[in-house]
Design goal:
The complex is a heterotrimer of chains A (251), B (264) and C (328). Chain A has 10 helices and no strands. Chain A has 251 residues and is an all-alpha fold. Chain A has one domain. In chain A, helix 1 runs antiparallel to helix 2. Chain B has 264 residues and is mainly α. Helix content of chain B is 76%, strand content 0%. Chain B is built from 11 helices and no strands. The two termini of chain B are 29 Å apart. By secondary structure, chain C is an alpha/beta fold. In chain C, helix 7 links the parallel strand 6 and strand 7. Chain C is globular, with a radius of gyration of 24 Å. Chain C starts with 5 loop residues before the first strand and ends with a helix. In chain C, 37% of the residues are buried. Chain C is 36% helix and 29% strand. Chain C contains 11 helices and 13 strands. In chain C, the strands form 3 sheets. In chain C, strands 5-6-7-3-8-9 form a 6-stranded mixed β-sheet, sandwiched between helices. In chain C, strands 11-12-10-13 form a 4-stranded antiparallel β-sheet, covered by helices on one side. The longest helix of chain C has 18 residues. Classes of the chains: A mainly alpha (251), B mainly alpha (264), C alpha/beta (328). Chains in contact: A-B, A-C, B-C. At the A-B interface, helix 1 and helix 7 of A face helix 2 and helix 8 of B.
């Protein structure tokens, strides 16, 4: 009886809890921001409003990943473990497409909304200097970032065809993602490398933010597009390879 | 009693060993956080000509390495554990045992700490090699530091164990836990050494036990405290310890009454 | 005079449950002010169970069985009334009390999921302060009675449902409790495993003189184990007595099973034909006239085979509940 009542309320409670969580993480970030900038005017060569814009992008991308990418990928790992992936594979549609849109977690929109507010505020403080070039750069880098993160997740999830207990690895992503709240350029060389090429936090957060505030150079933009294209292709191939392996095993 | 603890320790270590991969992964989380703030504060110090609030990049590195170790040895996950226990109904099994459940929680916690020792020191060494910390070591401070860490651990355990029992009253206590962890993030000294926090935040901190959990033992070891401050800190730790011990007794007693009134 | 192992008088448990209306605004309102209503899960039940007795606790889902067991094992605080188990008041959860009872409920209580069963047993040994010498002999005894064998070395998560239940029971009985509360000990198990557990409960009861109070949906359990049953429904005791009395009291009919050489006989003049399968018939007749009808059947018809049975106990129980519903 208790369970039934709880379930009935679960959705609404989930929303409230998510709102609280988003609010808290925003508050944490803002107070941290204030503490840091009470002691300095620049961080690396980033000004306070640049960092604030970066924070906005951090929340927006985090929200989008939590909304669109992560739920489906967690679901995929679970389906592989439980053997329920077979239902998806029997559908007359591209399996990668189906598993990628299997689930959304709508409450994560709160992060997106809060992030947009922070970003808007930061850009306003900077004097609304976002021109045509910056808008295009932001759109392109955000798309590439999304594609890279998606491919990264797809590769991890595909690994679950071989290693059943891999869901914990998503925790690593969360831990690393925290690092993206500050410019990747601040980190020592080896960590910069990890945060760029092993866990692609730099492409997901720093590069789009740089694009928006006009700090992006052509070289980085080119690299971004290149890596995105490569990741999409590699993850696609790896997925198909994993799928062949999976079907072979269960047959 | 000792044989019960030995049996508990044996099982909890056996269980954790089964999850060694997950534990390693969680460990990464706990290593990343201090690195992030260390990097940020190093950048701040550099932008200020190499020093901020009495810290240089080298002493920041020392601060965060010690902080990571102290955090590792004093933290508990009991608030999440109870959230899960009450929701999944496994609390009933605990209540049927002719022994107070805090003992198995203590044993679990100690077991984890023992296992993690093999990871945390290499991790600390690793960060040390990369960030070049500046340490001055005093043997007498080290003994006081050990005392402060033990006090911090016991005090923290009782406080968090008592707060975990909020789960008896509400099944969604994530909200409560979140507030606690957020306060802890700032007031224990994880985001920044307490001296770098704005005054209003430090005043909030003075009314709460958080600063005695991490910041105090860390700054003690780094030789940043006067003798008077050390004596004051140890006293505060003992006072909070006595308070939290009493609190856990009362909350447990009332919590069980509440739980057995509404059922599982 | 010995004291009964379990003594319950006028025991009641009332839950206060929140009442909710649909819709978002109502949900927010309820966060501030909750409407509640009382549900009587157990309503003034009284009974006693003696040492060495196995008593079946029967009733449909939600009748109050589990609530009663939880009150008797000290997990729930009664709203009113009294319970004494081995001379203790359960809700005080005294260490001596907890050390001398056990509650088996569901599958994940005693055993630690990720480690071999024997390690969980060892852990329980320490918690219940079982002396080493007793421990080894108990393990040997349980291993033999339950056929545990190699299971003890396996991690719990690698066990099947039935194996897990056996180990769960072994862990629950390691400290040789004098009172056993068993909530659905055979649920979800296959027939062989059910029988095995049944035999074990019976053997344990014989050897240790323990009092057993058990609930089960499987009447085979009840028939095999319980001399006495207590039927509860809507939190009240409907019946307390020997199983045979339950049948006599609530089932005024007997079933005559008869086999003829024809498939087209009309037997409706003898009683209600409840089933026909080829040349086999089942007729339900009033208990009082059973001998007479049997005589007539044998005299009138070319009978190949004839048996007289009490109706299945499930049907009797069903009848108990439906008659109660009709009354209320």
């Amino acid at each position: 009886m208790r369970i039934g009542i709880l379930n009935e309320l679960a959705y609404r409670m989930n929303f409230l809890v998510q709102l609280l969580q988003s609010g808290m993480s925003l508050l944490t970030a803002l107070v941290g921001f204030l503490v840091v900038f009470s002691h300095t005017e620049t961080l690396g060569d980033w000004r306070p409003n640049d960092i604030l814009a970066l924070l906005g992008v951090y929340l927006i991308v985090g929200g989008l990943v939590g909304l669109l990418i992560r739920p489906s990928m967690s679901r995929l790992m679970e389906d592989v473990r439980e053997g329920t992936l077979d239902y998806t594979l029997t559908k007359p549609e591209d399996a990668q497409f189906l598993v990628s849109i299997a689930q959304v977690r709508i409450w994560k929109l709160t992060d997106f909304v809060l992030g947009s507010i922070v970003l808007g505020y930061a850009l306003f403080n900077r004097g609304l200097d976002v021109g045509f070039d910056e808008t295009i750069a932001f759109a392109v880098t955000l798309t590439c970032g999304g594609a890279i993160v998606y491919s990264f997740f797809l590769i991890l999830s595909t690994l679950s065809f071989w290693f059943i207990r891999i869901d914990n690895i998503l925790v690593i992503f969360d831990a690393m993602y925290q690092a993206g709240r500050w410019p990747i350029g601040l980190y020592p060389y080896w960590l910069k490398f990890v945060l760029t090429f092993i866990v692609p936090i730099a492409f997901a957060i720093t590069v789009p933010a740089e694009g928006l505030i006009g700090r992006l150079d052509a070289q980085t933009l080119g690299l971004d597009i290149g890596v995105a294209t490569l990741m999409i292709a590699v993850s696609r191939l790896f997925w198909r390879y994993g799928l062949r392996n999976y079907s072979g095993a269960s047959a | 009693m000792l044989s019960i603890y030995l049996a508990y320790l044996k099982t909890s270590i056996a269980v954790m060993f089964q999850y060694r991969a997950s534990m390693l992964i969680w460990m990464i989380w706990r290593v990343i956080e201090p690195i992030i703030y260390l990097v940020v504060w190093t950048a701040v110090a550099k932008s200020r000509g190499g020093e901020v609030g009495g810290y240089t990049p080298g002493t920041f590195a020392a601060y965060y390495i010690v902080l990571m170790i102290v955090q590792q040895y004093t933290f508990t996950w009991i608030m999440h554990e109870y959230e899960w226990r009450v929701r999944s109904g496994t609390l009933s099994a605990v209540l049927l045992k002719p022994i107070h459940p805090i003992h198995s929680d203590i044993a679990d916690n100690i077991g984890y700490k023992v296992l993690m020792t093999v990871i945390i020191f290499p991790a600390a060494l690793f960060i040390g090699l990369l960030f070049a910390p500046v340490f001055t070591f005093h043997a007498d401070l080290f003994i006081l530091f050990l005392l402060a860490v033990v006090l911090s651990y016991v005090m923290r355990f009782f406080i968090e164990w008592a707060l975990a029992l909020v789960a008896f009253w509400t099944t969604r206590n994530e909200a409560f836990n979140q507030v606690y962890f957020l306060l802890g993030l700032f007031l224990t000294g994880r985001i920044a050494p307490l001296g770098l926090l704005p005054d209003w935040l430090r005043e909030v901190g003075d009314a709460l036990p958080f600063q005695w959990m991490l910041a105090f033992p860390v700054e003690l070891l780094l030789g940043r405290l006067t003798n008077g401050e050390i004596a004051h800190g140890l006293t505060m730790q003992v006072l909070w310890l006595v308070f939290s011990f009493g609190l856990h007794r009362i909350v447990w007693w009332r919590g069980v009454r509440k739980y057995s009134a509404v059922g599982a | 005079m010995t004291m009964p192992a379990i003594q319950v008088s006028q025991l009641s448990k009332t839950y206060v449950v929140p009442e909710r209306e649909a819709g978002l605004s109502a949900a927010f309102k309820s966060l501030i002010h909750r409407k509640t209503r009382e549900v009587k899960a157990v309503d003034q039940i009284s009974f006693t169970v003696d040492e060495g007795e196995i008593v079946g606790f029967l009733g449909p889902n939600g009748a109050g069985k589990t609530t009663s067991l939880k009150m008797l094992s000290g997990l729930l605080y009664p709203t009113s009334g009294e319970a004494h188990v081995l001379g203790h008041i359960p809700s005080k959860r005294h260490r001596d009390f907890l050390s001398d009872i056990t509650l088996v409920m569901g599958q994940r209580n005693q055993l630690v999921w990720d480690i071999p069963v024997i390690d969980s047993l060892e852990r329980n040994r320490a918690v219940y302060r079982v002396p080493r010498s007793d421990y080894q002999s108990t393990i040997d005894e349980l291993t033999e009675l339950l056929d545990l064998g190699e299971l003890l070395q396996k991690p719990v998560r690698n066990l099947s449902l039935g194996e897990r239940m056996k180990c769960e029971i072994a862990a629950a009985l390691l400290h040789r409790p004098s009172v056993l509360f068993l909530d659905e000990p055979t649920i979800g198990l296959d027939v062989t495993m059910q029988r095995r557990i049944r035999e074990f409960i019976s053997a344990y009861n014989r050897e240790h003189g323990a009092a057993v109070l058990l609930t089960s949906h499987y009447m085979a359990d009840v028939e095999a184990l319980c001399d006495r049953v207590i039927v509860i429904h809507h939190g009240r005791v409907l019946f307390d007595g020997p199983l045979t009395d339950l049948v006599a009291r609530f089932s005024p009919h007997k079933t005559i099973q008869i086999e003829l050489d024809t498939e087209s006989a009309d037997l409706s003049e003898y009683g209600d034909v409840v089933e026909q399968e080829g040349a086999r018939y089942k007729i339900s007749v009033d208990k009082a006239v059973t001998p007479e009808v049997t005589g007539r059947l044998l005299a009138d018809l070319p009978v190949i085979d004839l048996t007289v049975e009490d109706p299945p106990i499930e049907n009797v129980i069903e009848q108990v509940f439906s008659s109660e519903n009709a009354e209320s």
